[in-house]
Amino acid sequence: MDCQRLCDRLDEELRTDAYADLDASANGLQIGPADREIDHVAFAVDGAVETIEAAAERGADLLVTHHGVSWGGIERVTGRQYDQIAAAIEHDVALYTSHLPLDGHQELGNAAGIADLLGLEARSPFGTLGGEYIGQQGTLPDSVELSAVCDQLRSELDTGAGEIRALDFGPAEVSDVAIVTGSGVDWLGEAAGAGVDLLVTGEGKQQAYHEARELETNVVLAGHYATETFGVESLEELLTEWGLETSFIDCPTGL
Description:
Elements: H1 3-14, E1 28-31, E2 40-46, H2 49-57, E3 62-67, H3 79-90, E4 94-97, H4 100-104, H5 110-118, E5 121-129, E6 132-145, H6 146-156, E7 165-167, E8 173-179, H7 188-193, E9 198-201, H8 206-215, E10 218-221, H9 224-227, H10 230-241, E11 245-248
Parallel strand pairs: 2-3, 2-11, 3-4, 8-9, 9-10
Antiparallel strand pairs: 1-4, 5-6, 6-8, 7-10
Protein backbone atom coordinates (compact mmCIF):
# COMPACT_ATOMS: atom_id res chain seq x y z
CA MET A 1 0.00 0.00 0.00
CA ASP A 2 1.23 3.51 -0.80
CA CYS A 3 2.60 5.20 2.34
CA GLN A 4 0.63 8.41 1.85
CA ARG A 5 -2.62 6.49 1.38
CA LEU A 6 -1.92 4.40 4.48
CA CYS A 7 -1.11 7.46 6.60
CA ASP A 8 -4.21 9.26 5.32
CA ARG A 9 -6.38 6.28 6.30
CA LEU A 10 -4.81 6.18 9.75
CA ASP A 11 -5.21 9.93 10.21
CA GLU A 12 -8.87 9.68 9.26
CA GLU A 13 -9.55 6.74 11.57
CA LEU A 14 -7.72 8.37 14.50
CA ARG A 15 -9.04 11.90 13.88
CA THR A 16 -5.48 13.22 13.94
CA ASP A 17 -6.45 16.74 12.87
CA ALA A 18 -8.78 17.14 15.87
CA TYR A 19 -5.79 16.96 18.22
CA ALA A 20 -3.40 19.11 16.18
CA ASP A 21 -3.58 22.11 18.53
CA LEU A 22 -3.72 20.01 21.72
CA ASP A 23 -0.78 17.66 21.39
CA ALA A 24 2.94 18.42 21.59
CA SER A 25 3.54 15.32 19.49
CA ALA A 26 3.79 15.79 15.73
CA ASN A 27 1.24 13.09 14.96
CA GLY A 28 1.22 11.40 11.59
CA LEU A 29 4.16 10.51 9.37
CA GLN A 30 7.26 11.81 11.19
CA ILE A 31 10.07 10.21 9.17
CA GLY A 32 10.17 8.87 5.65
CA PRO A 33 9.00 9.55 2.09
CA ALA A 34 5.25 9.57 1.56
CA ASP A 35 5.51 7.97 -1.88
CA ARG A 36 7.09 4.68 -0.85
CA GLU A 37 5.32 1.31 -0.95
CA ILE A 38 4.46 -0.24 2.42
CA ASP A 39 4.14 -4.02 2.73
CA HIS A 40 5.16 -4.74 6.32
CA VAL A 41 4.29 -2.53 9.30
CA ALA A 42 5.81 -2.95 12.77
CA PHE A 43 4.20 -1.57 15.93
CA ALA A 44 5.74 -0.43 19.22
CA VAL A 45 4.90 1.90 22.09
CA ASP A 46 8.08 3.98 21.75
CA GLY A 47 9.96 5.30 18.75
CA ALA A 48 13.47 4.52 20.01
CA VAL A 49 16.68 3.27 18.41
CA GLU A 50 15.92 -0.18 19.84
CA THR A 51 12.46 -0.41 18.28
CA ILE A 52 13.56 1.10 14.96
CA GLU A 53 16.36 -1.45 14.66
CA ALA A 54 13.98 -4.25 15.68
CA ALA A 55 11.54 -3.11 12.99
CA ALA A 56 14.34 -3.26 10.41
CA GLU A 57 15.29 -6.76 11.55
CA ARG A 58 11.69 -7.84 10.91
CA GLY A 59 11.79 -6.38 7.42
CA ALA A 60 9.30 -3.61 8.19
CA ASP A 61 8.91 -0.63 5.87
CA LEU A 62 7.03 1.43 8.48
CA LEU A 63 7.07 1.58 12.28
CA VAL A 64 3.89 2.82 13.99
CA THR A 65 4.34 4.09 17.55
CA HIS A 66 2.49 5.88 20.31
CA HIS A 67 5.52 7.98 21.29
CA GLY A 68 7.50 9.39 18.39
CA VAL A 69 10.63 11.49 17.99
CA SER A 70 9.19 14.95 17.33
CA TRP A 71 7.62 16.89 20.22
CA GLY A 72 6.86 20.51 19.44
CA GLY A 73 9.16 20.92 16.46
CA ILE A 74 12.77 20.12 15.66
CA GLU A 75 15.31 22.94 15.77
CA ARG A 76 18.49 20.86 15.90
CA VAL A 77 19.09 17.20 15.09
CA THR A 78 21.65 16.26 17.71
CA GLY A 79 22.15 13.81 20.56
CA ARG A 80 19.49 11.17 21.07
CA GLN A 81 17.19 12.69 18.45
CA TYR A 82 19.97 12.39 15.89
CA ASP A 83 20.47 8.73 16.82
CA GLN A 84 16.74 8.00 16.40
CA ILE A 85 16.42 9.75 13.04
CA ALA A 86 19.73 8.34 11.78
CA ALA A 87 18.62 4.81 12.68
CA ALA A 88 15.37 5.23 10.76
CA ILE A 89 17.11 6.61 7.67
CA GLU A 90 19.99 4.11 7.81
CA HIS A 91 17.59 1.17 8.02
CA ASP A 92 15.06 2.72 5.63
CA VAL A 93 12.22 2.49 8.16
CA ALA A 94 9.52 5.17 8.03
CA LEU A 95 7.89 6.30 11.29
CA TYR A 96 4.22 7.10 11.93
CA THR A 97 3.15 8.32 15.37
CA SER A 98 -0.20 8.75 17.10
CA HIS A 99 -0.10 10.10 20.64
CA LEU A 100 -3.25 11.75 22.05
CA PRO A 101 -5.42 10.67 19.11
CA LEU A 102 -4.64 7.06 20.01
CA ASP A 103 -5.28 7.75 23.69
CA GLY A 104 -8.67 9.20 22.91
CA HIS A 105 -10.02 6.74 20.35
CA GLN A 106 -13.08 5.17 21.96
CA GLU A 107 -12.65 1.78 20.27
CA LEU A 108 -8.97 1.40 19.36
CA GLY A 109 -7.40 3.57 22.04
CA ASN A 110 -5.33 2.77 25.11
CA ALA A 111 -8.09 3.56 27.61
CA ALA A 112 -10.56 1.53 25.55
CA GLY A 113 -8.16 -1.42 25.80
CA ILE A 114 -8.03 -1.19 29.59
CA ALA A 115 -11.83 -0.87 29.65
CA ASP A 116 -12.10 -4.04 27.54
CA LEU A 117 -9.75 -5.83 29.91
CA LEU A 118 -11.82 -4.84 32.95
CA GLY A 119 -15.09 -5.57 31.17
CA LEU A 120 -16.49 -2.10 31.77
CA GLU A 121 -20.09 -1.46 30.78
CA ALA A 122 -22.04 1.74 30.01
CA ARG A 123 -18.90 3.41 28.71
CA SER A 124 -18.48 7.06 27.83
CA PRO A 125 -15.58 9.37 26.95
CA PHE A 126 -13.52 10.75 29.86
CA GLY A 127 -10.53 13.01 30.30
CA THR A 128 -11.34 16.32 28.66
CA LEU A 129 -8.62 18.25 26.88
CA GLY A 130 -9.47 21.25 24.76
CA GLY A 131 -12.83 19.89 23.70
CA GLU A 132 -11.55 16.40 23.00
CA TYR A 133 -11.15 13.32 25.20
CA ILE A 134 -8.12 11.18 26.00
CA GLY A 135 -9.73 8.49 28.16
CA GLN A 136 -12.81 6.49 28.94
CA GLN A 137 -15.03 5.63 31.89
CA GLY A 138 -17.52 2.90 32.66
CA THR A 139 -18.93 0.55 35.26
CA LEU A 140 -17.70 -2.87 36.35
CA PRO A 141 -20.24 -5.69 35.93
CA ASP A 142 -20.13 -6.18 39.71
CA SER A 143 -18.62 -4.20 42.56
CA VAL A 144 -15.29 -5.68 43.62
CA GLU A 145 -12.56 -4.91 46.11
CA LEU A 146 -9.85 -2.59 44.86
CA SER A 147 -7.31 -5.37 45.37
CA ALA A 148 -9.20 -7.53 42.86
CA VAL A 149 -8.79 -4.87 40.16
CA CYS A 150 -5.08 -4.64 40.95
CA ASP A 151 -4.73 -8.42 40.77
CA GLN A 152 -6.47 -8.52 37.40
CA LEU A 153 -4.25 -5.81 35.96
CA ARG A 154 -1.18 -7.44 37.46
CA SER A 155 -1.99 -10.74 35.77
CA GLU A 156 -2.72 -9.20 32.36
CA LEU A 157 -0.34 -6.26 31.90
CA ASP A 158 3.27 -6.43 30.78
CA THR A 159 4.80 -4.36 33.57
CA GLY A 160 8.35 -5.63 33.11
CA ALA A 161 10.20 -5.10 36.37
CA GLY A 162 7.64 -2.54 37.51
CA GLU A 163 4.94 -2.90 40.14
CA ILE A 164 1.27 -2.01 40.13
CA ARG A 165 0.55 0.36 43.01
CA ALA A 166 -2.71 1.56 44.51
CA LEU A 167 -3.55 4.73 46.39
CA ASP A 168 -6.50 3.34 48.34
CA PHE A 169 -8.20 6.51 49.52
CA GLY A 170 -11.65 5.81 48.10
CA PRO A 171 -14.31 3.14 48.66
CA ALA A 172 -13.09 -0.34 49.63
CA GLU A 173 -15.29 -1.76 46.87
CA VAL A 174 -15.19 -0.13 43.44
CA SER A 175 -17.73 -0.05 40.65
CA ASP A 176 -17.34 3.13 38.58
CA VAL A 177 -13.93 3.44 36.89
CA ALA A 178 -12.23 6.21 34.89
CA ILE A 179 -9.17 5.55 32.76
CA VAL A 180 -6.48 7.87 31.40
CA THR A 181 -3.39 5.86 30.49
CA GLY A 182 0.24 6.95 30.69
CA SER A 183 0.63 10.04 32.85
CA GLY A 184 -3.01 10.65 33.71
CA VAL A 185 -3.15 11.72 37.36
CA ASP A 186 -3.84 15.30 36.24
CA TRP A 187 -7.41 14.10 35.64
CA LEU A 188 -7.93 13.08 39.27
CA GLY A 189 -10.13 16.08 39.91
CA GLU A 190 -12.30 15.27 36.92
CA ALA A 191 -12.57 11.68 38.12
CA ALA A 192 -13.70 12.78 41.56
CA GLY A 193 -16.15 15.23 40.01
CA ALA A 194 -17.61 12.44 37.90
CA GLY A 195 -18.20 10.42 41.05
CA VAL A 196 -16.09 7.45 40.06
CA ASP A 197 -14.57 5.15 42.66
CA LEU A 198 -11.29 4.59 40.86
CA LEU A 199 -8.94 6.26 38.38
CA VAL A 200 -6.69 3.84 36.50
CA THR A 201 -3.59 5.40 34.98
CA GLY A 202 0.04 4.61 34.29
CA GLU A 203 2.39 6.65 36.46
CA GLY A 204 1.96 9.08 39.31
CA LYS A 205 3.28 12.40 40.55
CA GLN A 206 4.15 13.43 44.09
CA GLN A 207 1.06 15.61 44.53
CA ALA A 208 -1.27 12.82 43.40
CA TYR A 209 -0.97 11.12 46.81
CA HIS A 210 -2.42 14.05 48.72
CA GLU A 211 -4.91 14.95 46.00
CA ALA A 212 -6.32 11.41 45.92
CA ARG A 213 -6.52 11.35 49.70
CA GLU A 214 -8.30 14.68 49.92
CA LEU A 215 -10.69 13.78 47.09
CA GLU A 216 -11.29 10.33 48.62
CA THR A 217 -10.68 8.67 45.28
CA ASN A 218 -8.78 5.45 44.60
CA VAL A 219 -5.96 5.51 42.07
CA VAL A 220 -4.18 2.57 40.46
CA LEU A 221 -0.76 3.21 38.94
CA ALA A 222 -0.27 0.35 36.51
CA GLY A 223 2.77 1.58 34.58
CA HIS A 224 3.10 4.05 31.71
CA TYR A 225 4.30 1.46 29.20
CA ALA A 226 1.98 -1.29 30.40
CA THR A 227 -1.16 0.83 30.01
CA GLU A 228 -0.20 2.07 26.54
CA THR A 229 0.38 -1.13 24.60
CA PHE A 230 -3.32 -1.49 23.80
CA GLY A 231 -3.59 1.23 21.17
CA VAL A 232 -0.73 0.07 18.97
CA GLU A 233 -1.88 -3.54 19.32
CA SER A 234 -5.36 -2.51 18.14
CA LEU A 235 -3.84 -0.67 15.19
CA GLU A 236 -1.86 -3.79 14.33
CA GLU A 237 -5.10 -5.77 14.15
CA LEU A 238 -6.67 -3.05 12.00
CA LEU A 239 -3.81 -2.98 9.49
CA THR A 240 -3.81 -6.76 9.30
CA GLU A 241 -7.44 -6.45 8.21
CA TRP A 242 -6.29 -3.91 5.61
CA GLY A 243 -4.12 -6.63 4.09
CA LEU A 244 -0.68 -5.64 5.40
CA GLU A 245 1.91 -7.88 7.02
CA THR A 246 2.43 -6.79 10.62
CA SER A 247 4.54 -7.47 13.71
CA PHE A 248 4.60 -6.17 17.28
CA ILE A 249 7.78 -5.14 19.07
CA ASP A 250 7.49 -5.45 22.86
CA CYS A 251 10.02 -3.43 24.84
CA PRO A 252 8.61 -3.09 28.38
CA THR A 253 10.30 -0.42 30.46
CA GLY A 254 8.91 -1.29 33.90
CA LEU A 255 7.95 2.37 34.25
